[in-house]
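Input sequence (420 aa), recorded before submission:
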Amino acid sequence: MANNLDKNVSEIVLQKFIPGFMDSAVLLNTVDRQVIQGDINENSGETVQLKRPHQYAVERTSDGDLSAASTSNLISATATATTSNMATVWVEWKIVEQALELNQLDQILMPAQKKLVSELENELGTKMVQNAGLTSGTIGTKIDAWGDVAYPGALMNSIGVDGEMFAVMNPFSVTNLADTQSGLASGSNNLVDTAWKRAQISGNFGGLQAFTSNSLTSYTVGTASGAVAVNGTPTVTYTALRNTYQLTLDLDGLGAAETITAGTQLEFPATFMLNQQNKETVDRDGAAVPFVGTVTTDATANGSGEISVTISGAPIFDATNPQYNTVSRAIADNDVVNILGTASTRYQPALAYSKDYFGMGTVDLDPLVGWDSTVINEGGLSIRCTKYSDATANKQLVRFDILPAYVCMNPFFGMQFFGN
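Predicted structure, token format:
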């Protein structure tokens, strides 16, 4: 008897596709997938603005009289969520049809699920590295002790980050930690473990959930290195930086046409990090922790050795609204800036971050008219499956579509880290 699978195939296939997709994910399971769900869609355009939380100052008085005090200024601020390019995988229908008939759809779809997850996690990992506002360890030093993993958690706690926190490392870091990781692993040897379970090294180490991932991205430091200087005095008030939490500033002291590349971190040794809650200077072993910003886009110096760079991580110092300050002083003209890392050298940092650091959502796509097309929204993800035909090539196909969108909620909730 001939099969009758021509109707509602997309829904049947998609119901099988989504569980395998989520089981293959690691990074996607550590970020907030709900933060922009419903805010960004086909009608909202390429970007949508999300509200940042307000912060408040505490007044201390001997008798409770506030008549001479000022109320906390409530300044509205937004974070921008931006859509990326659509990600699509497709397969010929006859392969899927055969899998349906033989009850082997899970096996047939597995490569498509993994490929789509890998594509999205690589993109997410790149954005997370380029927006991290913190650093830990010595760039290029391998992670080979659990103290290297514990320090990022301690630094984030010192800055006032709370909630779920994760450390994600290259799989080879596990071999470096092998002598000391006994008893730290999740302990599950189930043959059908998800990628999440298989990637987990420790459920709680130094306040972090530790994982491995092969989706961590690398960056290559540009041709400039060493110490340069701030050229001019940038505006670092909360009003100026509130929406982007990024600072564009001019530097000089480079050679002509030297480059500073995305992902490279810049250290400001005279400006120190503040705890985001109590506004005290963050201290490690008696030394204040300097502010570090991560370059978001490649930049090239002019013939005079001057360059304009944008860094993620806002060094806010606002005398009028001190409740929003993130650093101990305002960056000033001629401040020394250290370009971390060796020129023209490739690095792959591990990542440590709070779940509130980054958000990822997916645009709720409409089904394609005229085809067997279905959209399912689940767990903060929207995936479309469409069965269609190519009359010219005499082929029938099935495609899976995801249109991702990303937002960095707070750069100081994310960190590049290496070994100490």
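Checked by second reader. The CA atoms of residues 316 and 326 lie 5 Å apart.
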